[in-house]
Amino acid sequence: MDPKSLDFKTSWEYAPAPEGKEHIKINARYEHFIGGEFVAPAKGRYFETINPATEEKLSEVAEGSSEDVDKAVVAARAALDKSWSKLRASERGKYIYRLARMMQERAREFAVIESLDGGKTIRESRDVDVPLAIAHFFYYAGWADKIRYAFPGKTPRPIGVAGQIIPWNFPLLMAAWKIAPALAAGNTVVLKPAETTPLTALKLAELIQAADLPPGVVNIVTGAGATGAALVNHPGLDKIAFTGSTEVGKLIQRAIAGSRKRYTLELGGKAANIIFEDAAIDQAVEGIVNGIFFNQGHVCCAGSRLFVQESVYDTVIRKLKDRLETLIVGDPLDKNTDIGAINSKMQLDKISAYLKIGVAEGAELYQSSCKLPKKGFFCKPTLFLHCSQSQRIVQEEIFGPVLSVQTFRTPEEAISRANNTPYGLSGGVWTDKGSKIFKVSNALRCGVVWANTYNKFDPSAPFGGYKESGMGREGGLHGLQPYIQYN
Ligand code: ADP
């Protein structure tokens, strides 16, 4: 039956359940956080950050120039030499624990601000972003005084001052991935949040100040690409940690080639989810939806390609279409919403361009019949059926709620097609057979493979990519290594 013929609207109407925002405080203006103080930008320029679900201005934020970046790097160096490196490791650990506990107390505020500034659903920010960010601080706080036991026979030392640049899809979580291991290993940092989502990092700065962290250990400079480039090119840094697009990752590699700066890059992805005929189909369909739609497709490890074994293709597509019809697109602060706002107008334009490209390439477009809010940046959950390997919608990262679907007959065919991409960040395998899980996951050239689940994270598990998805790992003991050198 064509799911569009069913009156899903009537059967799935929920009363609104908006999360309150009375308890949060967003300042009208934010300055840089340098040397433990909030400092006005040298050039006096500010930019707006808006709520992508309503297009309303939330706040204005300092635009970082090279002078601001320099001030922050000098503050980080002074903190490294004068305080942070002189502290006992257990004392450093205590500061990080304190920060984690203070974040826990403010978890609801962080979640609401994350959804307001980035457009992601409150369910995701409340249940994923914020708890995971806190868990990373707790996890790395625990490592602070145990690092020498983790690298037996060696004497680990911090690398020095790290420049850290993060994207807009998991603003607080990415800040945690970067700051927590760096501090635990005794480094100091200058962090640049993404220009569309600076607010939770600046909230974190307020907590860092309240936690009495020695001034300059964490510095936050806000701005767009030019501010990021000024940070990358600053000669006073020992390391660059970047999460973002493959395109900018390559620019960064070129910019620091030949310098002493070490680097880790976590870049794009085009993950394949592979459903075998023996899989629990309902569970698999739910996992696919979780992997690409619940997060607006704004995840570098999003399962944006689907490979379905031919014998179950009709069943999987029917169930997927049914499920698409029940997805609620709209107000990110409503607890019933499955798909929130696209992060920015620029990103929505990019996704819309790919929808046109897919149709022009001959793929069959299927979208849910849901209505989109009149204001704000929204995109219907979209399937592209009958795709072929060479199409741009199959090869390129769209970063939106768009799933391209292909079929396969044998495991070998699925593996070879899944690997046929410049990326290699993540993948998913759905099957009832353990042996098939081992065979396929070992053959997939990607850093993370989930089996019969998707998008599961834990601070103790390393995450990172192969090929153009980047280098280095974050999370776990692996995530400490890039912040350590040995005597
Ligand atoms: P995305 O596609 O996730 O927006 P970007 O790579 O454009 O990825 O952005 C990720 C982060 O990199 C953001 O904080 C952005 O401001 C920053 N950035 C953009 N261009 C540059 C650049 N040339 N050098 C350094 N950082 C940059």
Could you characterize what this model shows?
With 487 residues, the chain is of the alpha/beta class. Helix 4 packs across helix 5 (122-143), helix 5 (122-143) packs parallel to helix 7 (171-184) and helix 11 (281-292) packs across helix 12. The protein has two domains: 29-267 and 469-486, Aldehyde Dehydrogenase, Chain A, domain 1, CATH 3.40.605.10; 272-458, Aldehyde Dehydrogenase, Chain A, domain 2, CATH 3.40.309.10. The radius of gyration is 22 Å and the shape is globular. The protein has 16 helices and 20 strands. A seven-stranded mixed beta sheet has the order 14-15-16-13-12-17-18, with helices on both faces. Residues 165-168, 192, 194-195, 224-225, 228-229, 232, 244-245, 248, 251-252 line the site of adenosine-5'-diphosphate (ADP).
Strand residue content:
15-25%
Rounded radius of gyration (Å): 22 Å
What is the CATH H-level superfamily of the largest domain?
A: Aldehyde Dehydrogenase, Chain A, domain 1
For the largest sheet, list the strands in their spatial order. 14-15-16-13-12-17-18
Mean pLDDT over the full residue set: 95
Low-confidence stretches: none
Identify the bound ligands.
adenosine-5'-diphosphate
CATH topology type of the largest domain = Aldehyde Dehydrogenase, Chain A, domain 1
CATH uppermost class of the largest domain: Alpha Beta
Q: Describe the main β-sheet briefly.
A: 7 strands, mixed
Number of domains: 2
